Each structure stands twice: as C-alpha cells, then as structure tokens.
Amino acid sequence: MTILRGQSTGSVEALVGQIADEYTQRVNRGERPSIEEYTEKHPEIALILREVLQALGMIRQPDVEAALAGSEPYLAAPLGDFRLIRKIGCGGMGIVYEAEQISLKRRVAVKILPLAAALDPRHLQRFKKEAEAAANLHHEHVVPVHSVGFDRGIHYYAMQFIEGQSLAAIIQEMRRRAGLEPGDLQATVPYADAPTSADPDTPSLAALTTEGSIRSPAFYRAVARLGLEAADGLDHAHRMGVLHRDIKPGNLLVDNRCNLWITDFGLAQMRSDARLTVTGELLGTVRYMSPEQALAKRVVVDHRTDIYSLGATLYELLTLEPVFKGHDRQELLRQIAFDDPIPARRLNGRIPRDLETIISTAIAKAPDHRYGSAKDMAEDLLLFLNDQPIKARPEGVLRWLWRKSRRHAASLMLGLTAIITSVVLSIFLLSRNPSVQGLSPDEIEAKRQQEALEVITRDLDARKTVKLIGEEGSPGYFRWRTDDSGKITETPDGTFSVQHWEFGLVELLPDPRFPCYRFSAEVRHEGEPLKEAKVGIYFGHSELPDGATSAHFYCAVAFNDLIEQGAVEAGPDQKAQNPLRLEAHRQPRKGFHHVANVLGTNSLFTPAVALGAPSPWRNLAVEVRPATIEVFWDGKWIAKTNRDNLMMSARPLVARLDDPPTMYPQFAPRDGLGLFVSQGIASFRNVTIEPID
Amino acid sequence: MDQAKPNSCDTERLLRQAQGGDGQAFEDLFARHRAYLRQVVAVRLDPRIRPRLDPSDVVQEAQLDAFRRFGDFLERRPMSFRLWLRKTTCERLLMLRRYHRTAARRSVDKEVGLPDGSAFVLVNQLLAGGSAPSQRLQRSESARRIRNVMAQLQEADREILLMRNLEALSNQEVAEVLQIEPVAASQRYGRALLRLRKLLQANGLMESQR
What we know:
- The structure holds 2 protein chains of 2 kinds.
- Chain A contains 22 helices and 21 strands.
- Chain A is an alpha+beta fold.
- Chain A folds into 4 domains: 2-69; 164-394, Orthogonal Bundle (Transferase(Phosphotransferase), domain 1), CATH 1.10.510.10; 398-460, no CATH class; 466-691, Jelly Rolls (Sandwich), CATH 2.60.120.560.
- Residues 1-5, 71-76, 185-203, 273-283, 414-419, 428-436 and 565-577 of chain A have low confidence and may be disordered.
- Chain B has helices at 9-19, 23-42, 55-76, 81-104, 118-128, 133-152, 155-166, 171-178, 182-202.
- The longest helix of chain B is centred in the middle third of the chain and has 24 residues, at 81-104.
- The radius of gyration of chain B is 20 Å and the shape is globular.
- Chain B starts with 8 loop residues before the first helix and ends in an 8-residue tail after the last helix.
C-alpha cells in the first residue's frame, strides 16, 4: 500500500471518514457531488478515496436500497413443495403467500404459522391431527387444504388459492363507502392484503356493494345467500366432527363468482394451545367469540359456537357494525357474556324481520336457544330466500324477562328495597294477570320497569315529550348507576328524593333515543349546608369495565343552593366558585374521581338563597346535541360549550405511562341520563325529556 | 461539524401539545415516523425470522412501548424525538428477535443475513415482461450481490453504513445512537467504507485501480 506511506491506518480512516461524512451529508440533502471534486482536494489519498466513494455510490443505488430494506417480501428457497411468490395477506394466525406447488405446477395459497413453533410436541401433535381432519373436508364452501407441512423450522398450511376477498375486506370497504370509520377489521384480515386492496372492481365486492346500498332488498338476499353457503359448509364440517371455533369475517372468503368459502379450519385450537396472541389480532378474534367461549376459561364448546359466530358475522355484514363494540378484551368479553346486542333492525330498519330473527336466533346467548344445527340455520335462510315463513320465532317478552331478571337479580334487589310498597302493590295487581303468574317479585318488578321503559321509548320514538317524573311521585323506571350506598325515598309532600354521600347517579333513561334533546328537571336542594354538596342532573353517562371494577364517565349540571348558608365555613376563596356548574366526571375506579368544571369559574351567576330560607325549587335544563351542550337555569340560557371541550376537560392533564383507554372517555349524546346527587339530598319533580332538532 | 437535527417545528409543536395533555398528539407524532421506523426494522430482520415477524408488527409493538415511556421522555427529553423512537424500536426488535429465535428452536444465529428479495423480484419482472427485462434482471442480480456483501460485513460496520445512508442520519445523530464522540463516529464510518470497498473488490463487484 504505497500510497499510504507515512500515514497510520487510523488517520486514513479518520480522513476518509471526515470526507465521506461530508459527501454523504450532501447526498442526503439531495445533491450530487462529484467524486473528482474530492480526489482533487485530497491528492494524497486520491486513489483510495475514489474507490471508497464509488463503493458508497453502489450501496446507494435505489435497487440496492430496496433490497437492503427488504421492502419486497422474499423467500429465496422453496418451502417443501411450495415456492412462495408474493405475500397476499397477514392475519392472526400467520402470513398468507400466493405460492406455486412445484410438483403439480398449480397455484396455491400458503399460510405460514409462526405460532406453531411455540407449541410443545403434544400440542403440535393435536394441531396436526386437527389440520389433517380439516384437510379431509371436501365441500364446495370449504377451502380445500392441500397439505400441512414443516420445513426449515417453519410450519405451514397449503390450501387452494381463492381469487377474491374476505368478508372483512368487504365490510371494510362498505364502511368506507358509508363514511364510517374503518373499525378494527384490518387487523384481522388474513387474506386480503390491506383495506385498500378491497378492489371495488372485483365482482364479489361489486355484487355486494355497488349495486345500490346496504338498504336494498338485493343486498339482503345476497347476505342471506352467503349465510346459507357458510351454514352449509359448517354443517358438512360439523357432521365430519370438525369444529371451526374461529368463524369471523376474515375467515369467510368470497370469490370472484360470489361463492363463499370458509377458510382456516383446524387452526383455532392452535392459538389457545400456544397461549400466544399476536399483536392486533386479539380483538378481531374475541369480537366474534360465542358467549360460552367468552365465559369459559377451559373452553368446552360444541358446534353451536360456530353458529353464534356466523350469526355475529352476518349481523355485521347487514348493519356494518359489530354486535359488540367493546374497545378492549375485558370489555368485549363482558359484553359478549352479559349484554344484549342492539337489534339489527334498530341499526338498519330495512332489514327484513325474518332475516333479523334468523340472526338473533343464531346469536342467542344460550346455545340451547340457538339453532340446533348449522343445517337448521341453512334451512331457515333458504326459506327466507324462497319468501316462505321461517321456523325460528322472535324471542318473546317472557323469555327475555326471564333472562333479564336472572342476570340482573342483584341490581334489581337494590331498586326493590327502595320502593317496596309499590312492588307489593304490583304483586297484588299483577297477580290477577295470568301472564305473570308464577313470577317472583323481582321478576314482576323487572317486568314493570321494563314496561315503563318501553312506553317511554315508544313515545320518544314518536318524538313526543316524555315526563320521566311528574309533579309528584317516583319515576316509572329508575336504577342506581353508581354504588347504591345512597337512599331513595318519597318525601312527606310526595316528591322523589335522592340522598348520596359520594357520587350518586340515578338513571332515568339508558338511551334518550335521539342525539338532540332537551333534558330538564325541577330540583330542590335539601339537608345540611355542606360546601362540597352538589345536586342536579347528569347525561352522557357511559360505564366501561376497567379491571375488576367499572370506570364511569358522565356530565353533570349541578348546583349548591346551601353554599351561602355555609359560607363562613367555606372560606373566602369559596366565593369565587360558582355554585352552578357543568362538570365532566371521570371515575376510573372506585375511590378515584376526576371532576372538571367545564365552564370555568366566572361564566355563571351565583344563585342566592337567603340565610335560613326554605330551599326553593330550581329549574335546570340542558340541550344536548352531538357537538354542543347548552345550559339553562330557571328558564334562562346560561352557557354553551362543545363536545371537545367537555372531553378535553375529562382527560388527565398529562398522559401517563400506563393510562388505560378509560382515561380518555368519549362523550356520546345517546348515553344514559338521570339524577345527580353528591354529598347531599335533593328532591326532583317535573323531569322531562324532549327530542329537539 | 454537523449538528444533531433538532426536532422539526411540527414535531416540537406536537410535543408541546402532548405535554399539555393532548392525547391525540402522540398518535400524530408517531404516525410521522412510522415509515422510517418500519425501514429501520426491515433492514435488521434476518430472513429466517422474516416469515414469522413482519416489520409492521415490530413497529406496532414499539409504539406501545413508546407510548408507555412517553411521559418519561417528555420529562427528560434525553435526545431528539426521532432518535428516541428509533432507540425504543430497536430495543423492541432485539427482544422480539431473541424470542422468535428461541421459539423456533433453530439456530438462526451466526448466519448474518439480509432479506432476499430476489425470488420475488425475478418472478415479478418475468411476469411483468417490461421493456428491457434482461437489463433489469442484471440490475437486480447485482443489487442482490451487493446486498450479500453488506451481509458479510461485521455488524458494527454494516450498522453505521445503514444509519448514514439508508436512514440518512447525520454524523452527530449516529454518535448519539452509538454513544461515542462525533470524531470517533466519523472515523468508524471511514473504516466501514474502507472495508466495504475491500469486500466489493474481493467479490468482483468493483475493479481495483491499483
């Protein structure tokens, strides 16, 4: 190395590094510096510098950068008999490639199963057995499995290549066209590459989505036919002793001739064996789980779990909304196990009643209430398609009531103690009604409350103003929404009175039915003058499971009429505080309560009560719209705020390391509303709700 | 001497919003860096692991990590946001790599590899039947060979070449990542380039002008 004479290796490296640094920086800025410029400036290392900068140029060629970044899916060597061509999708169970089966020169889809590597030999054996059983299914609506293999440390599953889209991609695309948020389906799409790959030109999509809207009769028939094909495929598998266990939109493919194919038979067990979850996949999988899957720790399920999941998939296809919308695993599992889904027809009133009945039968909570077999479901779908009466019956009120009262027996007991007299009366009156004979007192109370709520709902739907509490007496429907340590009584003058020493919410309406409404109440603040006392009304209440307890979010318009009487105790700074407040409450768990006064401290006037005077009746009202909230006091407009302001107020000031989503609640106008009492006693009368524009 | 790139105005504005309690700001911040992080991961995934692990999955998990540590970052501001995300992502990648290697119970180690895109590129180009397929094939063949040369480099050399060129980090930023003086970083860069040149020549990809 004659050229380097007199220079240490280190100093050459340093000099080359310095020059290359500058050169690289210029290239990174988008310049194209010439090599000569540098070799002329540094003749002592010209030769070596030229080569180094050339080498640098070589690794910066776009092709090389692309190869380095691995921006292309790759797989150099074949996997067993399969040569992978391109990645076509990626889902919970693995990545799907389009591939060629070398020996037969046919096009196939190969699914790489990363989880299989984590299985112990016993589970691996079981997975193989299941996969082999699945490979023995031959049905026109089941994707044929060619082989299950292991090569180069990779487990894979080769199946027929279906040219088309998964229902997940189709639902996604329809949501996009309906102007809805994408939802979480993309995390679970195992076949279609990405939401955007739902190419609207493919016939499967076109047939479902471009011909009119999801409100056209043709669409319902198309959904019913897809459901029929899926039920048919499931029935075949079930008769062969194979359960799917993971039916969901991502596992139902629709080919270009609009035929439906069920894929991924025999894979679900692997996940529970591997006890692993893949990022992003979990929710999508949980969302379509049957209640028995959601409830059981050691899953013992039968073929009716697949019927449920198929029902849940069809429900989503019809309404473009999942049956349950929970945002985390805990919440979803709880909803699946305990909550009643919103009837599909409430989300889309054009859905034929029989089709809704078929789906609600399929997704019944108890397996015994579902179709006994996939064949029965297929038959009903066929009857529907032939415009003949179906066999399933809508759930009767009594069965609903029976379920309801069993499930909520505990909470019903609470309301019961407070209004025991009316219950006794009810028993007396209703016992003469043959339809309720044999019901227990809490079942009768449940029925009475339910009927009251139904009347309210019906009147609201007709856009009538509804009196939730009249001039005196108790509401037809109510229940505690926070802990029940408070007390509900009727005062001597016959008004409905609530007392609570923490934060008491008495729900009067779980859903106001319209996003725009005026909610007003006459409120009288009573009891001891406490500076912390607040009484009023609340709205926008949502409850989310958070670990073992629940997180609550709600807004309250509340005041303290006794504050002036307690002013001595309150101290000077208390004067600046408005007794009338619009507050956003966030209670992530019991014992922690975040309250933000949304309107600030100076925007409201101070209600004045003369010392020692009896508390007056105050008229509180809010007008709620999706984006705005307006507050009224004794008929006068007081203040207005918007939804964002409300939600921002409820958030923690600084995002913390481990904030759960419940720290960032969403305000929804159609969430629950009712009476609010904190550290005090209040009477309520003339409580009304009125749909507005 | 170049300076470490400070946060851009936008990034700085979003960071301040985040500090003020804006939960959406983190999402926005992360979204700006997602493509970059994906690339950082993609070049560092070896081919045996690649079918088990998609770079996007790594980035997604890194996002959770970053979200968890975000409060700490806002308090201390130890480095620019981009470098901090890069660091968080690389740590997550290391963990996942370790996990997947163990899970596979196959020694994927030792064999330094970079993703091999050739099969895909070849098939694609054959199928596409573009204007000058033979020339393109040649180009992609030489790209593949250059990539293999990169794979033969020692990890430290390869890392610094990737950081300066593919990631377009400045010398100062590289120094921060490696926790060495900028002078030492530039010397290492020089050393890596000298070695790259030697390997390219040894593989017949570059003429020696001696």
